[in-house]
Amino acid sequence: METAKRYPEIELANVGMRYSSDASEVNALQEISLDIAKGEFVSLLGPSGCGKTTLLRLMADLIQPTSGSIKVSGKSAKEARLARKYGIVFQNPVLYDWRRVEENIALPLEMMGVKKSERKRKVAELLELVRLQGFGDKYPWQLSGGMQQRVAIARALSMEPEILLMDEPFSALDEFTRERLNEELLSIWGQVNNTVVFVTHSISESIFLSDRVYVLSPHPGRLSSVVDIPLPRPRNRETRNSPEFFNLIARIRGSFEGV
Amino acid sequence: MKGLRFLRYGRLLPAMAWGLGLLILWEAASWYLLQVRQVPLAQSKLPYIHEVLSAFAEYGDTLVQEGAVTFGNAGLGFLLGAAAGALLAILMSLSKWIEHLAFPYAVASQMIPILGLAPILYGIVHDERVARVLIAGYITFFPVSINMLRGLRGVEPSALELLYSYAAKPWNIYFKLRLPASLPGLFSGLKIAAPLAVTGAILVELMGARHGIGVIMLRNLYYGPSHTYMFWSTVIVGALLGVASYALIGGLERLIAPWQPEFRDKGGDRL
């Protein structure tokens, strides 16, 4: 992991986000500066209202900051989006009801004008990657929540994005499914090796997955601490039971107490 | 298999029992009015169902022929109206400006009673066929337009953001998301409109035409009690045409948009 020379892929400098209406002004995010290197897995962690999802949406160019700058590989977030550098996974799978699983996965490829035979090959590969072989011809509603979210991940990966942005993708799932999907996500990431920004409100999830956790606190949303996660990879069930893991949980939980 | 059995015992059997029960009740009530209460013109009020059916059998050819004329005109008007409605919905979804311009008129058009509009229209075009087609289309266009517009507009924001994140072109957003998402609305509009289009066509026929189920309906009504059974037969044909049009659209919907929640197998293989 440490061998490759790293340069920042995502750079945020003094990013702020204010929502103003006639009556009031909400400071959703204030003075956020952070660098994420290529190939890193980082989490944005914090309680509801801390602006972590807003931060992700800013990186994705779904919204624009009211101050500061966001650079992706040295270019603006908008340019990165237009260059299709982002794969996004939302909290809900957001699968299209009228498309079978394989057609949902192929959606971004259709946008890119990828040929049908190539799409087919790619989708088969992705189904295998997210371990959904044999489910390609099902409709989304025929799958469980966990499987739907795996389809959403496959769809996000289909255009081989340099950056995978995930907004609490497993928060609607039960803890058992979530832990299993965490492990699967790491194994997928081990194969595709892109940069991942993962939003979560679960301390243990953020530690288990990430190289680094950005802890945010609310009112106004700001970066309260940055915690490196030196746990060895590959991570698995034993990782969760290791004393280092518990120490990190305690440390991050402690960082919230001052808030 | 499970689904089939559900259909057989859960829906078909009760439906048939209901139908049979209704027929028996009808026959009994008819007999009661005629024989027991001895109501004047009892058969015009509620004729024996078996007499109606025998008139139906005797004049089946005519009924089918005239019914087909009505259905054909209603169908043509329906298609034109549906196309116009869908087009207007698409235009309104593309531009608020067009919506503000067209919507009030679309609503106002529905305030004009068909009963009044039909003779006016007939007076203008002076062609029974064109008048029928136009009225059927006129009835169809509004429910189709309104329901489809709702589907086009009511797309989940995150479904849109997804396409935005792919840097999708505007036409892709339309063809891959908005149009498919509008199909349920489009079909509910079509299902409302289809029987109405048939009724509308019959209405125009009542005002003067040479062919169509409405024509023989009116003729047999004029002839009085001696033609009661035939009159009732035409009413039943009219109803059947409405049912057929609804069923046709329903079948088409299952074919074109089978992914909707109401078509899902309840016991489905959720894994």
From TrEMBL, chain A:
Q: Which SUPFAM superfamilies does the annotation name? A: P-loop containing nucleoside triphosphate hydrolases (SSF52540)
| Alphabetically ordered keywords of this record | ATP-binding, Nucleotide-binding, Transport
Keyword Oxidoreductase present in the record's keywords: the answer is: no
Superkingdom of this protein's organism: Bacteria
Q: Per UniProt, what is one Pfam family of this protein?
A: ABC_tran
Q: Please give the InterPro entries that the UniProt record associates with this protein.
A: AAA+_ATPase, ABC_transporter-like_ATP-bd, ABC_transporter-like_CS, ABC_transporter_ATP-bind, P-loop_NTPase
Provide a Gene Ontology MF annotation, just one: ATP binding
Q: Where is the signal peptide?
A: none
Q: Per the database record, which ranges form the ABC transporter domain?
A: 10-243
What is the name attached to this protein's record?
A: NitT/TauT family transport system ATP-binding protein
State the species of origin: Cohnella lupini
Q: What is the lineage of its organism?
A: Bacteria, Bacillati, Bacillota, Bacilli, Bacillales
UniProtKB/TrEMBL annotation, chain B:
Q: Where in the cell is it found?
A: Cell membrane
Q: Which UniProt keywords apply?
A: Cell membrane, Membrane, Transmembrane, Transmembrane helix, Transport
Query: Gene3D superfamilies under this entry?
Result: MetI-like
Instruction: Report how it sits in the membrane.
Output: Multi-pass membrane protein
Among InterPro entries, the record links this protein to: MetI-like, MetI-like_sf
Domain of life, per the record? Answer: Bacteria
The name under which this protein is listed is NitT/TauT family transport system permease protein
Tell me what organism the protein belongs to: Cohnella lupini
